[in-house]
Specification:
Elements lengths: L2 E9 L2 E11 L2 E4 L2 E5 L12 E4 L2 E5 L6 H7 L13 E4 L5 H9 L5 E5 L2 H13 L3 E5 L17 E4 L6 H12 L3 E7 H4 L5 H12 L3 E8 L7 E8 L1
Parallel strand pairs: 7-8, 7-10, 8-9, 10-11
Antiparallel strand pairs: 1-2, 2-3, 3-4, 4-6, 5-6, 11-13, 12-13
Helix pairs in contact: 4-6
Length: about 230
């Protein structure tokens, strides 16, 4: 249910009335900007703006920096996350989106798999600030190598720049059996020749054996040639 309530915020030494609207659990729109209710006080992960309202902090959730935020901005309706969700995040990179998933799933764990050692250094920095993030240096193609580090998960969220994106998701689904999955398909990582729409269709066909497709969101103009798919296991 969407709730809206007005607040006074201090901007440039002047108070300005802003509307705070609840969109999803712990996800809000504040003064026209997306934000997550921060799980941890005084935490700023990247260049996001911090809103302080009635002893609570909200972190701006930038659609230009996050596929999940872009999907919400584009009208996402299906949102499987709640405060207690345990999430397997494949392709966590430097931890931008996973830091917001940490805010949303405040009582759950966010297992973040990242293959790049350089990105892992950034992710470790975020994990030191947010103790429900579990960083794992591993190849998402090989879930058997990190399966013993991960408990039960409710959701897989995947954002990897590899050619076999659907196959990676399927391997991890078979290993961990979550109820829900969200996949950000990067068409140009799969083929630089085929039209993105054709790539999207082919990847979705691979997934239909294992998942019911719930929603598809094209992420332009925030992320060119990207599609976010929400799914539920069959």
């Amino acid at each position: 249910m969407s709730l809206e309530f007005p607040f006074l915020l201090l901007f440039a030494n002047e108070y300005k009335k802003v509307k705070v609207r609840s969109i999803f659990p712990r996800v809000y729109k504040i003064d026209g900007k997306l934000a997550t209710l921060s799980r941890d006080k005084n935490v700023k992960v990247y260049d996001e703006k911090i809103f302080r309202i009635r002893n609570k902090e909200y972190r701006e959730f930038k659609p230009e920096r996050s596929k999940l935020a872009a999907a919400i901005k584009k009208g996402l309706k299906f949102f499987p996350f709640d405060e207690k969700s345990d999430v397997l995040y494949l392709g966590a990179s430097s931890g931008t989106t996973s830091s917001h998933v940490s805010d949303i799933c405040k009582d759950g764990l966010v297992y973040c798999v990242e293959i790049s050692s350089r990105m892992m250094l950034e992710l470790l920095r975020v994990a030191r600030m947010k103790d429900n993030i579990i960083p794992i240096l591993a190849d998402a193609n090989r879930p058997e190598e990190y399966a013993n580090l991960i408990g039960k998960v409710d959701i897989i969220y995947q954002d990897v720049a590899q050619k076999n994106q659907a196959e990676i998701l399927i391997k991890n689904f078979l290993a961990f059996k979550p109820r829900y999955a969200m996949l950000a398909i990067k068409a140009r990582s799969i083929s630089s020749i085929q039209r993105p729409e054709k790539v999207f269709r082919e990847e979705i066909e691979k997934l239909k054996k294992y998942f019911k497709i719930i929603e598809k969101i094209n992420l332009e103009p925030y992320h060119k040639d990207h599609l976010l798919i929400s799914m539920e296991r069959r």
